[in-house]
Amino acid sequence: MTGEGGRRPDPLERADDVAQAMRDLDRRAFLPPDQRPHAHEDRPLPLGHGLTCSQPSTVATMLRRLHVPVGARVLDVGSGSGWTTALLARLVGPRGEVLGLELDPGLAQWGAGNLAATRQPWARIEPATPGVLGREVPGGWSRVLVSAAAPRLPDALLRQVADGGRVVLPVRTTLWVVERRGETFVHRRLGSYAFVPLR
């Protein structure tokens, strides 16, 4: 697929789309009332349940490195308060699909309500199945975002990615981008970050 003038579009050109999505979807609406005064601080904020809403600069980095195309089918693992799911929905647009999964049922319900308030019906949040990472779909996911740290690269989740797709996820204290090329997975380190553990 080529852009105007026959040139291939640079995925990093969507960086401004990430910034715009973050301006449109105020983090404050996805925080507990006692944390809303801190919404614009660039640090993780507690959601309860031992979980946090990641700091905005980290979320921006992950979304930019995910290179989310318009119309993509995206899985958001560890959707928490629904903020990342809503941001992904804004990036894929109405022709896309986003599924957020959250292991804590109460948090999943609250996050789903937060997401619904953004009026993006092509995105939804559901409780994750305990002991199962991700959710398989025919043809695989074109993009997967994971917002909690796995102890190792999770093969079961990588196998849910479509050919040509990519995953951004933390493993222990290192953030990775993984691209699938047929049966080959290409890994790149993005730096050191702190996340809550993937359960």
TrEMBL record:
Residues 28-49 are annotated as: Disordered. GO terms for molecular function: protein-L-isoaspartate (D-aspartate) O-methyltransferase activity. Keywords: Cytoplasm, Methyltransferase, S-adenosyl-L-methionine, Transferase. Its EC number is 2.1.1.77. Pfam families: PCMT. It is found in: Cytoplasm. It is an enzyme of class 2 (transferase). The keyword Transcription does not apply. GO terms for cellular component: cytoplasm. InterPro entries: PCMT, SAM-dependent_MTases_sf. This is Protein-L-isoaspartate O-methyltransferase. It comes from the Bacteria.
